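Input (Acyl-coenzyme A thioesterase 13):
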Amino acid sequence: MNTSEIRAAGLKIIRNLMTLRNSMEIQPLNIFQTIPIPNPIPQDPHPSLTDIINANERIYQKRLEEVIYRLNSSPNFNKVAEKIRPVSASSKAIVVEMTVEHEHVNNKGTLHGGQTAALVDIVTARAVAVTHKNVPMASTDLSVSYFLPAKIGETLLIEGIVLKAGKTMAFTEIEFRRRSDKALIAKGKHNLAFVPIPTDKLNSLEPYY
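Output:
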């Protein structure tokens, strides 16, 4: 073989070796491709503001239902609010409703002032609890103004509004309106302090709100 033939044969051997090496290389494995997804859920990479708001409202609504459920099974004074029902929730307010029954009224057959005051305390605290899960709170001051009587059988819409929630305190107000004509029955204010909990006791706490 002359020099040219030897060179051509050498190049052919090199090309064959390169082809063999490429065929033996291990390709990277995408582990997610090995997981079957029979019904993939399409996700919008650019959700609208309405989509985001609706998703948050569902979260707040679920939290409201959780705290109301605890009231319905409460073994302590909070039982005075066991008849309230969740309506709606956001990061700044909750709406619940309650039908006035015999257990809620005074000797005149209208909603007892003490029952209203207790609901001012309990409902506004739950409005804060929607965004402050299981954080103990203590009342610093509470006031109620009464405008109209509510009779047995009337359903009230009760809106608890969070005016401001800081690091140590929350400021709230509340309105009681008759559902049939939206007449203002009572209005209140309630300010609460967040109670600091030692780190070593956090895991042993029972659900608070």
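The first strand starts at residue 85 and ends at 89.
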